[in-house]
Amino acid sequence: MKILDLLKDVSIDVNATCSNKDEAIDTLVSLMAKQGNLNDQDVYKQGIYAREELSTTGIGEGIAIPHAQSESVNAPGLAAMVVKDGVDYQSLDNQPAKLFFMIAVPKTGGNEHLQILAMLSQMLMDTEFKDSLINAQSVEEFMDLINQKEAAQKAKEEEKEEAQKEFTGTYRLLAVTACPTGIAHTYMAAEALEEKAKQMGITIKVETDGSGGTKNAPTAKEIEECEAIIVAADKNVEMARFDGKPVIQVKVADGINKAEELINEALSGNAPIYHADHASTTVESDESVGRQIYKHLMNGVSHMLPFVIGGGILIALAFLFDDYTIDPSNFGKNTPLAAFFKTTGDTAFGFMLPILAGYISMSISDRPGLAVGFVGGALASQGNSGFLGALVAGFAAGYLMKGLRKLFDHLPDAFEGLKPVLLYPFFGLLLMALLMTFIINPPVAAINTALTNALNSMGGSSKIILGMLLGGMMAVDMGGPINKAAYVFGTASIASGNYDIMAAVMIGGMVPPLAIALATFFFKNRFTEKEQQTTLTNVIMGLSFITEGAIPFAASDPLHILPACVVGSAVAGALSMFFNCTLMAPHGGIFVIGVISNPLGYLFALAVGSIVGMFGLALLKKPLK
Fold this sequence. Notes:
Layout: H1 3-6, E1 7-13, H2 21-33, H3 41-54, E2 58-60, E3 63-64, E4 67-70, E5 77-87, E6 97-106, H4 112-123, H5 127-134, H6 139-166, E7 173-178, H7 185-200, E8 204-210, E9 213-215, H8 220-225, E10 228-233, E11 247-250, H9 252-257, H10 259-266, H11 289-320, H12 336-350, H13 352-365, H14 368-382, H15 386-408, H16 419-457, H17 460-476, H18 481-495, H19 499-522, H20 529-532, H21 535-543, H22 551-556, H23 558-578, H24 599-620
Parallel strand pairs: 1-5, 3-6, 4-6, 7-8, 7-10, 10-11
Antiparallel strand pairs: 2-3, 5-6, 8-9
Helix pairs in contact: 2-3, 4-6, 4-7, 11-12, 11-13, 11-18, 13-14, 13-15, 14-15, 14-16, 15-16, 17-18, 17-19, 17-23, 18-19, 19-21, 19-23, 19-24, 23-24
């Protein structure tokens, strides 16, 4: 596909006359309609104005690129117009716009046309080319200029790709460009930054977060070695990977119009340091396989938790407000209020496994893996392989799509547009269904059933040992892999109907901050004055089930803090099992005590575990001199 496949001669006017922005849009929409690719001009025009409300598409330098992605578009298209005297289009540089390209993109469909439009956007950054289009005397000359420039631009892109493959040095700068629709400004900003950096003799790598997906993403090593990062974006981009690096964040228009200024500012040494709450990344890195698998898993779990937490609390409320004596077999839905909570909670829980698998897969293989992972998770639910099956499905889908992407890279360019709309989903879903039906579901379902039966058949002593183990795991690394492993096991058990495990997990995570709070209050001579000031904070964090509140103490004195906390958490987890406490909500701490069975026993277990941890700290830590 070429630009002229989207831009027809009937939709070009090289001698248009418009007196204001509204007339310019009306004229362009009329030109677009002549292609026959709009089923409703008014709806499409509304989309154009909605995009203008986000920020003007008059990017300056005499160029305007209004665009919309709308259900009123049957097929992608371009319309072009030249107003030689210019028109006030409220452009970023407050100068009249003379050259207009209007873009129409359907809501669904391939993304090959997006790549073509990206190339057009980059071409317009060439001042000489832009001026030649403005001065074109006929439609034929206008189209011929585009044809020649497109051929040159393709050669330039191929040369750039080869240069990046051969580049073995360090990029001084990294950049990310993104606009709300990911059609034009994304690529124009990237082109402007690359060209200006080249002129200044500065190495740069620019990631484009467009409608066709993320391209040219930097590795973790490149991020670590660069001097600074420029984020020119009008939408959210993955920022956690830049934790601890100098980062400049501006709107995408600044990337187009202020490239040199941004580059100088980024390398000045005065760029602010970006701090992320959770440093994670979805791009390839040089990390160990174990670390990558852990991060993919956490990406799925973090997206799953809102469904589990919200749904679990709602289900718990349903049982709290229901009347068991009305119909024991329908407990949870006997009253209208209970039925409302139970139905909503069950609906949220129904998304748990597809969300888990989908976002694990997406973490591995980017957007093409999302749908395949979702379906894999749903098939795990239907095939009774449950949480374990969804876990396996997420990784299987991610690496399956990663393999398909590499395989399809060898196809001719003519198939590029078919990949996201036909090849990826068809072959991905087909192969995923075969994997789940014949390879993954049968053995994992058997394992899941055996595990569930084993948990259900556990006697009192076995459950106490399990509670001790899970409670202790929650305090070993306080938010790290061991803690998360216990927590994920607890949430998975909720889905299987084993609510006592989640109770033991949560109480184990609550103890460390509470034990430290008690120790800093009753044994002040073991702690510095600054540490004593955290008593109230740790009480709040412990009651809120935020184990990470104990991390500063554990980091400063792990040999004395961790053993005491682990023992205290293990005791609390064992007592929770002993008192047959159950919890359907996978979070909330003391604030969900109303939905915990045997709440008095649970509070007693929490108090004993915290006191044991406190005395352990007092015993292991010596008084300060």
